[in-house]
Amino acid sequence: MTNADGSTHYDVVILGAGIAGLTLARQLLMYSDKKVLLLEKRPQIPPPRQKVGESNVQVQGYYLSKILDMEEHLLREHFLKYNLRFYWPTPGQPNTGYEHYSQSYIRFSSNICCYQLDRNKIEGELLRVNLQDPKFSFEAGVSNLDVKLSSGSTPHVVTFEVDERKNEVHTKWVVDTTGRSKFLARRLELTRTNPIRHGSVFFWVDGLLNIEKLTELSHREMLLHPNRRKLGHIPTWLATNHFCGEGYWFWVIPLQGKTSLGLVYDRAKVNEDEVSSPEKVIEWVCKRHPLFARDLPKQKIIDQAMYRDFSYDCKQTISADRWALAGEAGRFTDPLYSPGGDLISLYNTFITDAILTNDEQTLAVKARLYELLMWGLYEAYVPSYAVSYEVLGDQECFVMKYCWELTIYFTFYVFPFMNQVFTDTTFIVPYLDVFAKLGPLNHSVQAFITAYYRWKQGRPEEPREPSLFDFTGLEPLKKSEELFYKVGLSSRECIRLLRQSMSNIENLARFIAVHIYSVVLDNETLLTNKQLIETVNITGLNFDPEAMRAECRSLDPTRDTRLEKLGSEFIKQFRKAPARTRKVKQLPAAISIAAGAKFA
């Protein structure tokens, strides 16, 4: 499959025909007159092995469906996704049926559609549509690839072999999308580690694993169960479903004709020897989430893979010398919130704009700004995975963590992306200024929630009914989602709204802090204490119960109900809920939070 016409000069050579390379080619073909060559070492696209990375969220959902105009294919060949949902075994319940589990979710569907991608299908379709464009050439089965990068206006030289035929082409731009091969990053010595040390084992089984049917209820009882009053009737198996515990989560993702399953775990919390194969993962998960013991061991595994340590950073991903890295060829964090596709969408957008910038001085400015923005958007994810991954083990703590992160994501990622302002230099500088202010705040909140989680582990628990909580029960999250309807704004208008939205984010941070104070000190009146609300140091929270108690002894009793109203549904659900019990080793009483690190 190739449109190669014997040319030796191209505007862009892309290395690697995975989703990053194929979507970048599609974007360039749609929005420019650039001549593109795509090189792939594998002999066929899509490959015969199943590819992982199916769940996408709003940035990539918008990018694929709207920017790249793939909406009809997505709706025909892939399931429309019903958000992300999270599950925990309920204390005192047998947890052998779906109805026994505590859940957190967003009940309504997103205004920006997301999809459960069969990666092989989407990559095959992207290649097909790209090949219809005469500006596109494709070579598969490439070997002996070599790239000689130049500087200034001198073209780069790319050499490779196909079927023992040697080729040499010249190109203005080289973009590496070779994934974990990291072709350019390794050659340029750009690879570096990050603090995330997680592993994953994943596999696919034949047919649909419908989690709603993992129950001892009759079909009629399942349809009429009282939980439906909160959950509704949209098939929950359409979601990316996460079954959670301390330092791990197990995904269940539906694809047409098959189901994707995978365990992601913190290597400091989970014994790798116990989860080193799909069969071991199934046994391990069935012990912790007994509902899977009904059917999962009987499922036919049709493909499998694993990563013992999958997260990494990169020193640089774009250069004014006309090279760039996108997708896993550069950086990768963690799949918990499906950010990989988002980073591809953002990086491809920056790279496309850089390629379309002809003036060298303007390109030099953009390359510096885009590198800073690329790193910042990546680095902002790191505390989510490196600081507070263990709170996956507790519903209350995770709800605070996820609502906090999702409010920031909707505000600072989705809203600017759908307004297409990320490539406007008049937007980037003030955006980074506002975004950087989230740094100490994010680290402070993440670590405070983690410290609270650890404190909870020694508290007594009692049997209870499953807890069903919609994340939008925290008002700041609901308010941030309203930004999806504010489209067609100028860069200046977007910055104005982002600055206004900071108060919404800060209010959520204050609620989280004051709620934790009220539980730890067993004083519900703190939720409405005006002085505490206004003076709590949200950028330097310190989880020390004695210091917190001393801080609250002399508070003025004047009431302020704004936070109580903001989190009324959360308070109703969790303020009276008995905490978990699990004996753990004694932790230091005080956990200080260093608040100087940047969010971006």
Describe this structure in words.
By secondary structure, the chain is of the alpha/beta class. The protein folds into 3 domains: 9-54 and 118-192 and 312-359, 3-Layer(bba) Sandwich (FAD/NAD(P)-binding domain); 79-116 and 197-307, D-Amino Acid Oxidase, Chain A, domain 2 (2-Layer Sandwich), CATH 3.30.9.100; 390-574, no CATH class. Helices cover 38% and strands 18% of the residues. The chain has helices at residues 19-31, 58-67, 71-77, 119-131, 183-187, 219-223, 228-231, 278-288, 340-355, 360-379, 382-386, 395-418, 425-436, 438-456, 475-481, 491-520, 530-535, 545-553, 562-566, 568-574, and strands at 9-15, 36-39, 79-80, 84-88, 102-105, 115-116, 136-139, 142-148, 156-162, 165-176, 191-192, 198-206, 240-245, 248-255, 258-266, 301-307, 313-314, 318-319, 323-325, 468-470. A hairpin with a 2-residue loop joins β9 (156-162) and β10 (165-176). The longest helix has 30 residues, at 491-520. It is globular.
- Helical content stands at 25-40%
Structural class: alpha/beta
How many distinct beta strands? 20
Number of helices: 20
Domain count: 3
Largest sheet: 8 strands, mixed
- C-alpha Rg, in Å? 25 Å
Instruction: Report low-confidence residues grouped into runs of 5 or more.
Output: 577-600
How would the global form be characterised?
globular
Return the average pLDDT rounded to an integer.
Answer: 94
Report the span from N to C terminus: 42 Å
Strand content: 15-25%
